[in-house]
Structure formats: structure tokens, C-alpha cells
Amino acid sequence: MSEVTIRAATRADVEFLVEANAAMAWETESLALDRERLRRGVTAVFDEPRRGFYRIAEHAGVAAGCLLITYEWSDWRDGDWWWIQSVYVVPAARRLGVFGTLYRHVEAAARSSERVIGLRLYVEWENERAQRTYAALGMSQEHYHMYSRGFVAFG
């Protein structure tokens, strides 16, 4: 089995990130995202580093997965939560340790920073496989419910 390596995403990865996000939205929510809007959203992360950063997992030298880290300031803890978002592993690379390698890479980076207080992510209630994966990596379910009020339609 080839090794999974992690690297910082660059602007050259925008199309992979767009397609990965579109595939994830379709697979998890049967949601067809507007590719042009999605491309603008992905590119905006590279335009403004305060928005976050992407990591790319490669397997056998080919992009096999990705995730986005965004920031949430905690005044209570005087530091940032890193939110893991836009997680996707291409179907051919699933069950090869791609997400676990991505997660461990991000966790190590977070632990090495004095400003990061922890990692968070959200997962659909029905996605039990993902929940088991996150628990196996040492994450625990929070006691919060998430609420939102959107202002922009998807699609």
C-alpha cells in the first residue's frame, strides 16, 4: 500500500477542491452546488488567509482527499478552535487511511500552536460511519445542538 502524504493546498488545487466539495455535497445531501459560486468560495480562502486553509492528502502521488480548516475565536479560552470542514476522500482511496492521516496532520499542527485550543467538526446525525471514525481518532460528541439561519440559497 502506498503512503498517504499531506501538503498545503495551493491555487493549483482549486479545481480539485471544487470537484471534491461538489461531490461531498451530492453524496451527503443530494445537493447540486453551483460550481461557479463554489469556485469563488474556494478561491476566497487563498485570497484571504484569515478565512482558513486547505490541506490535500495524496495517495500514490495523486490527490485523494482534502479538508478545510476555519477559525472560531473563543473569548472564554483566549484562543482559536480549528473547525474541520469540507472533508472529502475520493471513492477509490476510501478505507486507505486518507482521512486519518489528514486528521493526525491537522491535530499535530494544532497542538504545536499556542493559539489553538482544540478541533471541532460537525457531522450529520445519520452518518454513523463518520461518527465512529471521529470517535476512533479521539474526538467526542459535544453537548450542543447546532442552529442556523441561511441567507444564501444553494444550488
TrEMBL record:
It holds the Pfam family Acetyltransf_1. The keyword rRNA-binding does not apply. Residues 4-155 form the N-acetyltransferase domain. Keywords: Ribonucleoprotein, Ribosomal protein. One of its GO terms (molecular function) is acyltransferase activity, transferring groups other than amino-acyl groups. GO terms for cellular component: ribosome. InterPro entries: Acyl_CoA_acyltransferase, GNAT_dom. This is Ribosomal protein S18 acetylase RimI-like enzyme. It comes from Tahibacter aquaticus.
